[in-house]
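Continued from yesterday's entry.
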Amino acid sequence: MKRVKVRVGRDGYEVWVGSGLLQQVGQQLKEIGLGGKAVIITDRTVGNLYSGTLKQSLAGEGFEVAVLQVPAGEEQKSLETAGRLYDELSSFYAERTTPILALGGGVIGDLAGFVAATYMRGVPLIQMPTTLLAQGDSSIGGKKIAELGNIFVIFSLEGFVEKTDDRRGKGVYQKVMQGMDNLREVGVPFGFSVMVTRQNTDTLVSDKFSDMMVDKGCLIGWYFLYIPVGLNPDTSLMPTAEQRELLRVQGPQRIRNEKPILVIDFWNDAPHMGGCIAGGRHFFHINSHGDAEPCIFIHMATDNIHDKSLREIIASPYFKAFRTRQPYGENLLRPCTMIDHPEVLREICAECHPYSTDGLMCGLITSPINDALDKYSQEVAKIMDPVWEREFASFNFTPDKFAQWKVDGKKQ
């Protein structure tokens, strides 16, 4: 664990950064002199995921623990909810030395912070945000980010308020809008990231959406296709072949040519990088546990950075298996080993035997998901192969990461 001191005038506070901190909280609080009772304030969504582990960590160090849950949602940030929490703190006989642990970001961070500052004229507060945006907001805030000068913030959206809140929770869209305003005011550069699905493609390629991102002050944008991984994967959310072509024509390439923002399409811009960049060709992903994954969407690994160096990981048979097969076909508009060439991913997994990094059997290589992906890849090929022949192969296209494209070896 790393401790970072944040100074505010003559005072300050510590930010704890590390892997597996949830299991270490009890020990860390003991080390700074806290003991006796502890109160966890969280919402039902986050609490169901993490409060059990946190409570166990605290109880293991002798704390008597109370978990106070509130419903999720912006409307909980009210004096009425704070009043109910005061009553529960009193019933628990919480004292001025009783720490409040705010498990969750956004509303929970604000609500628990207010309660901690006002109950018995103030009790110890530990913020425990569970998203990257909340971590930045809770630990250092926009002004401190501006002082550091080397942080670029990316906000995740699904479109406008309805689609964003449907997937990410009620009130998230407004939080993102406020976060963008806050960072713009203090001069911190930021951008956006969107997940393209069958339900929001039209919105994400619209001028209304891209103009709003420009007006907000975004400098860069990332477009990623929905990949059916993790809990409850759903292939019906994947954009259709026709929608992928719509994204290619009306999406990032058009937007960056017409508007003052750099927008990147992780799939349709693949020709400019020679296809897939995973497996250490130009990119790989290290998750919060240190597992080295060939791609952020492939939750399988053979190595961990706690056991091997980056050099060893990049040279591993697993990562080499991706690089030796790249590109996976002539059509670089179908660059992906997960959804465009799923048979290649199954072949690599059979060869290298990676372990799951998310505790789940990867649906990408098992039925029924892999059957759906085989059919999906064939449907995409029917649309995108003629496009490749007509607009790329017929002009002797060759990849050039420093130019839009080349024809007969000449930059255009």
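--- second protein ---
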Amino acid sequence: MGDSRSDQGESTDESPHENPQTDRIADEHEKHLLRAIELSRMARGHGNTPFGSLLVDAGGAVRLEQENVEITERDCTGHAETALIRAAGKRIDRGTLAGCTLYTSCEPCAMCATAIYWGNVGRVAFAMSAADLGEVIGAARVDPPLTLGIREVFSRTEKRIVVIGPVEAVRRAAIEAHAGFWSG
């Protein structure tokens, strides 16, 4: 089982790029991840937890954007990624979704990873890791953590889903979007 591919370092700024194609891809990842982080700030401003996601098709067009809505919609499944996949499934065919990338401000939880799997999205990129989120939340944690990472979820499938992240170039910005949220 498990042909899930992990490209953890594909879009980080830890080493200089030698290939202009790689630079362009890294720039695209960073641009879309920064938008996901902006959506997380917007979610926070609307009274929700600070998470955001967007779906980009194979041609680079943004198809959908989604903030977390779990608080304002009183829906425990209102995570940005799951809500985005729910909307995408109503508007975009599965073949197109297979060529899409879901960009998100934080590593998707097990519920969201499963929605991504069933939604047929071919690639996921995230700014900050679940471990980063755990450190940010710290003692303010309301629920016990579900420590099943996206790579582990995808490793249990036969579908190939590329995972990119955490992306160092934008990781700090994603963490900063949570500053003060969980403590008060």
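The beta strands are 52-56, 62-67, 101-106, 123-128, 162-164. The CA atoms of residues 11 and 136 lie 23 Å apart. Will compare against the first tomorrow.
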